[in-house]
Design a protein that fits this description.
Blueprint: H1 16-40, H2 47-73, H3 87-93, H4 102-126, H5 134-158, H6 167-182, H7 195-201, H8 233-245, H9 248-260, H10 266-292, H11 306-311, H12 316-327, H13 330-343, H14 347-374, H15 380-404, H16 410-426
Helix pairs in contact: 1-2, 1-4, 1-9, 2-5, 2-10, 4-5, 4-6, 6-7, 8-10, 9-10, 9-12, 10-14, 12-14, 12-15, 13-14
The structure holds fe (ii) ion (FE2) (2 copies).
The site of one fe (ii) ion (FE2) has 6 residues, from helix 14.
């Protein structure tokens, strides 16, 4: 092995074998932290934190993809790139979602793991020849720059949420940092965890929640769909935007798949990460449209995990089945709404539908690939039948809540009516 420490001529020497092993550990760190964030996303109640995770899961999947590809460039055997060689590091990373609170989970990812990744990549570059190892330099510059952006986004939302002197948060930070250090850190080589750090690894395994978490400051409802049909175009605008805002469950579903299914082909995680972010973008589009109309999430309209409430106990793969089935109608529905919003001169809503429609076409192919992976025993016909069955059960579930008056929507109908009245008075209509 070439060793930089003995080099007297200031050459940057690191052989390919060493570089590829380090690259693989970076890949596994970024990939497994991304899977932790995906696993925690459904549990996260704090709305700014939930949005942050979805965006960064996608960015981290892009980074992991670059690191994976560079590992393979460096003659690393394809068959081994996903093997669990760095067992001690992996045993620590898989316990991050066991954080007791949203705040503590965010701290472990953004104040321990990500800063350590930046430090390791910086150090790697200091001892890497910029010509021989040029692709690594380009990839790392992008990754380091984008993690820097992520840390700024984290700090800007945490300044009002996080009390840096909170003793529990400080203790958690030390526990995670100590465990990471003990296994050889991000750079490795991997080593046995010391007894002090062992308590972290012995924590019980993280389990996905039975319902997606929603901001604790919000009013609750049972279903997201209003029991009252729209009476005019403004109410139609609101209805479409509420539907958009409630796509959070569709972000939580691919995120849950990323966590639930270990050792899947990398492409499935890569696609699911983008899918997760897209659906959070769609939800945010709805929230932003409603904000412009003066309606506040969780106060004037509900954001509820109703699809999970209805089917989660069957397993995450049935939520995937429902999501895929509902998405098949997405492109036609979004094209129809785009046309209508243009006719009614609501160009912002038309543009939301236009971009959403573009995303949805990708989701359909991701859904097909994931369904084949999680229901390998189903034929194409059976998948279609099962999809139709669960979609009709979903319609019945909502219909029953509307019929029986158990939708929990009354408070929102009253508030929306008052807001709309104020809006129409102020516009002199
Ligand atoms: Fe969507
Ligand atoms: Fe979608």
């Amino acid at each position: 092995m070439l060793d930089n420490s003995t080099n007297k001529t200031n050459l940057k020497l690191r052989d390919v074998e060493t570089a590829s092993k380090m690259m693989r550990r970076y890949y596994r760190t970024v990939k497994e932290t991304m899977r932790d964030m995906a696993g925690y996303l459904p549990k996260m109640c704090w709305w700014p934190g939930k949005k942050l995770l979805a965006r960064h899961i996608w960015m981290d999947a892009l980074h992991a993809d670059m690191l994976r590809s560079r590992t393979l460039d460096l003659r690393y055997p394809r068959v081994d790139v996903e093997d669990n060689d760095d067992v001690h590091l992996l045993s620590i990373l898989e316990k991050l979602p066991t954080a007791p609170t949203d705040e503590q989970f965010l701290i472990s990812v953004y104040e321990v793991i990500k800063p350590e990744i930046v430090k390791s990549l910086t150090k790697y570059l200091q001892n890497s020849d910029p010509l021989d190892d040029a692709p690594t330099h380009l990839y790392f510059r992008r990754i380091m720059d984008e993690i820097g952006m992520q840390l700024e986004e984290y700090q800007s939302i945490m300044k009002d949420f996080h009390d840096a002197t909170n003793p529990e948060a400080v203790k958690w930070n030390r526990l995670v940092g100590g465990a990471l250090n003990s296994c050889g850190g991000i750079d490795g080589p991997d080593r046995q965890i010391d007894p002090l750090a062992a308590s972290f690894v012995e924590r019980p395994a993280y389990e996905l929640p039975l319902e997606g978490g929603r901001d604790t400051s919000w009013e609750k409802a049972v279903v997201q769909v209003s029991p009252r049909a729209a009476r005019n175009f403004t109410e139609e605008q609101i209805r479409v935007a509420i539907d958009h805002a409630n796509e959070v469950w569709a972000s939580e579903t691919p995120a849950a798949l990323i966590w639930e299914y270990k050792n899947m082909p990398w492409e499935l995680y890569f696609w699911a990460a983008r899918w997760c972010y897209d659906e959070m973008r769609h939800a945010t589009m709805g929230v932003e449209r409603l904000t412009v109309m003066g309606l506040e999430v969780g106060v004037d309209y509900p954001m509820v995990p109703d699809h999970w409430r209805a089917f989660r106990e069957r397993g995450v793969k049935y939520l995937l089945l429902l999501l895929h089935r509902l998405e098949q109608g997405g492109p036609i529905g979004k094209a129809k709404w785009k046309k209508k919003f243009i006719e009614m001169n609501d160009l912002a809503a038309a543009q939301d539908c236009d971009y959403d429609w573009a995303d949805e076409s990708g989701h359909i192919s991701y859904g097909v690939a994931w369904l084949k992976a999680v229901f390998p025993e189903w034929s194409k016909e059976q998948t279609i039948d099962e999809g139709n069955k669960i979609a009709s059960e979903w319609g019945e579930w909502i219909g029953n809540h509307h019929k029986n008056g158990t939708h929990g929507y009354e408070i929102f109908l009253d508030r929306m009516d008052r807001k709309m009245e104020a809006l129409s008075n102020s516009s002199g209509k």
